[in-house]
Amino acid sequence: MAVDETDNKPARRKASKKDAQLLIRISSAERDEFISLCEELDTSAAREIRRFIRTFVRENIHD
């Protein structure tokens, strides 16, 4: 792993910048169940929604 010369900490790969938001409306019960399940699976709701979007786009893009 690369080391950052300025502070001797391992250098991190820069992730793509997340600079947009998507507002959705769902029922409170659905949201609560989703959040609870994400916590049980040790993941975040945002991570799972981003994963869904990437998969959806990849599977439905027309070449």
Characterise the protein shown here:
- The chain has about 60 residues and is mainly alpha-helical.
- The chain is about 45% helix and about 0% strand.
- The protein is built from two helices and no strands.
- The longest helix has 16 residues, at about 45-60.
- The chain is extended, with a radius of gyration of 17 Å.
- The model has no long low-confidence stretch (mean pLDDT about 85).
Question: How does the SSE layout of this entry go?
Answer:
Elements: H1 28-40, H2 45-60
The beta-strand count equals 0
Radius of gyration: 17 Å
Mean pLDDT: 87
The assigned structural class equals mainly alpha
- In whole angstroms, how far apart are the ends? 36 Å
Question: What is the makeup of the main sheet?
Answer: none
What is the share of helical residues? 40-55%
Task: Kindly summarize this structure in a few lines.
By secondary structure, the chain is an all-alpha fold.
List keywords for this structure.
63 residues, mainly alpha, 2 helices
